[in-house]
Amino acid sequence: MNNNKPILSPRYGALFATALTAFSTFMATPSAWAQSASWPTKPVKIVVPFAPGGTTDILARAMAPELSKAFGQSFIVENRAGAGGNIGADIVAKSAPDGYTLLMGTVGTHGINKALYSKMAYDPQKDFAPITLVAGVPNVMVVNTDKAKAAGINNVTDFIRAAKAKPGTFNMASSGNGTSIHLAGELFKTMSGTYMTHFPYSGSSPALLALMSGDMDVMFDNLPSSMALIKSGRLKALAVTSAERSAALPDVPTIEQAGGPAMKGFEASSWFGLLAPAGTPPDIVNRIQQETAKALGTPAMKEKLLAQGAIPSGNTPAQFTTFINAEHKKWAQVVKASGAKVD
Question: Over the Cα atoms of the chain, what is R_g?
Fold first, then answer.
């Protein structure tokens, strides 16, 4: 009898050694369950990939104090603008998946940019764990009130006529390349047969300042960031970009209603949602979703968002994932039809 014969073959010995190493590593570090149970033990950062003052920023700052109260830790909003939201989104994609860095993502960062940009530093589907859709909003076609009056522009039809009369002289502002504000304008140009020069800014706030100063002629802004300016009369709302009128501006028609036969079927709305880096423990993702949904369901928050034209959601991570995948397909078709591209 050979007592030196190995109990395990070399193949199974290697597998056993690998398993033993993995087990030792697991025992030497806190389990994912323990990390999830104790989270959060320090402030949580919500990255807004646009400048302060826009709808993404407004919604993040509306949610931050609610989440702070729910979890007993500060939720801090950090603006990291640039490249149509790609800079801030990439920062979060490459952050540790520990629940301490979140993104207020948008239809731009997670629905449009992959089709619009020839090079992307992150994958909007693979590099994130969707948490919940916070809100959806229509965009609104706004013009400088004084300039519109001087040019005799009272509605969408007037605007199209004026833009066609002076091709290339109208300037269109947006919150950045690849945002829904940009793509809504590109879709409008394609369907109306007009040409306007696009000027991308680092967010809605600086773009709106340019529009109010008269440097820009038109913008297809997210409704919440333009609402106060419309109400004050500093901007004139010609139409909303959604399929139906907004309850926040019931007297303002849709572009389809106001633009004539050429604009039939026009729709380009926006959305905003919380995401974490891929690999974030599901328990943390689910806890954030549940508390966000609770906050969005309160009468005070509903009233606050609806008054600005935003429709609160709070759906599940699985539902949000399905929604994002559908948005990719939809906006890829819009980008292709518009011919828009960013290198």
Answer: 24
In this prediction the pTM is: 0.82
Low-confidence residues of the chain: pLDDT under 50: 1-29
Distance CA(166)–CA(83), nearest Å, equals: 30
Please write the tens of the pLDDT for every residue from 286-341. Answer: 999 999 999 999 999 999 999 989 999 999 999 999 999 999 998 898 888 777 78
Torsion over CA of 249, 251, 254 and 257, rounded to 10 degrees?
A: 170
Cβ proximity of 310 and 224 under 8 Å: yes
- Residue 302 exposed, middle or buried by CB count within 10 Å (0-12, 13-18, 19+): middle
pLDDT in tens, 233-257: 999 999 999 999 999 999 999 999 9
Order across the sheet with 270-277: list the strands: 75-79, 44-48, 101-106, 270-277, 128-137, 311-312
**Number of helices and strands (H, E) in the chain?**
15, 11
* Distance of alpha carbon 219 from alpha carbon 241, whole angstroms: 11
CA–CA separation, 35 vs 287, rounded Å? 13
At 35 the pLDDT is 64
All residues at 6 or more sequence positions from 22 whose CB lies less than 8 Å from its CB, including other chains = none
Q: What is the pLDDT of residue 177?
A: 85
